[in-house]
Amino acid sequence: MDTLAEKLSALKTEKAAARNPDWTAVMDRATEDLAATDILEGVPRVGARAPHFARPNLDGDTVRLTSLIKSGPTILSFFRGRW
Fold it and tell me: How many domains would you assign to the chain?
């Protein structure tokens, strides 16, 4: 069975192959430009404790981290926009 890392790597490769190379170049340059600043200093690292928070989910219901972690380990995923 593939590990999560292997699955994510394969997905990344698949999506990169289907994407316009010019777009990839622009995104890579933007990522490099951001990395050259100190903006990444404020980014939590893998395994860091998340602050307790309450945010609306896509249905508008309030979700609290304290409620989620009562069920066990929790993975937070942040994305921009609405799907």
Answer: 1
| 62 close to 56: Cβ distance less than 8 angstroms | yes
Residue 61 belongs to what domain range? 4-39+50-71
Composition of the chain by helix, strand, coil, percent to 5: 50, 5, 45
The residue type at 55: R
* Reported pTM: 0.43
pLDDT in tens, 6-63: 999 999 999 989 999 999 899 899 989 988 998 878 878 888 888 889 989 889 999 9
Q: Residue 82 falls within a domain, yes or no?
A: no
